[in-house]
What does this fold into?
Amino acid sequence: MIKNKNAFTIVELLIVIAIIGILSTIGIVTFSKVRIESRDMQRSSRISIVAEALEKYYDQNGIYPSCASMTTQTANNVATSTLKGIDPSVLATPSASTGTNSFSSCTGDPATDVFVYVCGASCSQYTLKYKEESTGLPISLVSRRAALSDIHMNDPTVASSTQINLSWTTITSATSYTWQIATNSNFTTGLVENSTTSATAASTGLTTGTLYYYRVMPRTASNVGSWSNTVSANTLVNPPASYNISASNTYNTLTATSNATCQAGVTVKYDWYKNGSLWKDDSIEKTVSYTMDWGEGTTITVNSFCVTTTGSISTLVAATNNANMTRSGFPWAYVGYEDWHYMRWDGGCPAYTTSQNFYWNSGGAIHANGNTPNPGSYYSGDTAWGDGGTNVTLTCNGPWGVVTASAWHRYGPGCVPDILSDACYH
It folds into this structure.
């Protein structure tokens, strides 16, 4: 009798072996990834614990620990003398042996599985770094606060001739601030030291028109920081007292003089305005003059202020009055006729004329000429006039020279001029 035996074929065995191999590979890869991620989590956790310890150090000292104190000591020494109370094991990376201080560098990015503590020369802030195993990239964690050495003084505000207001950046760990005032940048002349718990201060009782220098230093209960940057400001100068403008006029020139004065040793300056527009800015001219055109009217005003050699400036003060003048217009002349045998002329010269004269000339049937200084003159004749005309020229003599004006008109027996052609019609 023939017996049947059940068994795996070669093909089936190969398939089973392949499946087992695939599952094993997947398991190994997954397990390896989990272990890498676990080590990255340990690095992140340990760096965070170190960061908290560094912030506590800052609270007590107003500065972060030096590079040497973090990288040249053993883990136990760091835990007992620098980051007191920290678990020494957190100072080691997951791949390092127990008791290792993995903080081995203070510059650059970690190339291997180490910790980097970057704090610069003053350790006013820090950056903690480690290399993430899963990505190979450097991961950074920075300090939360600035150190005592990072204080900055803002530009001061000048409040008056005796007060300057100060302010600076707030340092979280500082319990007080010491600020100094002096009259030179080396803080050796007129030095006065003050203390405050605020990040602002009012410097009062100052001398008018004086340049002052300031700096500030933060303090904690057990430490002092570094001096800030130096700032300076001038107190205001007393402004000019009430003053006015004296004006003098010639035939075509308006001259204005300010009588503003400043305190001794201080220069007075002027902003001169002509017809409301700024004319001479920041000028030292006490007296100004302006030559006008014919018929022009001009008003001059001024604002004065006081300035010291160190740059102290007072407020602007306006004069109590102004200087103004209107120059007369051009000379004018007129010729007209009355009936058939009168020719009359008139005219006038501008102000400041030293002499004037009318020169007249008649042409046509009657020829006559002459001159007279008098306006309102006329020429007359009883005989019949033919068509003609009279020309009159007025000359005006003044300091500027001679200016003239002329006029002309037709005449004749019963002549009525045509206003369009200036010819006569009857």
Q: What stands out?
A: The first strand starts at residue 103 and ends at 105. The domain at 148-234 is CATH 2.60.40.10 (Immunoglobulin-like).
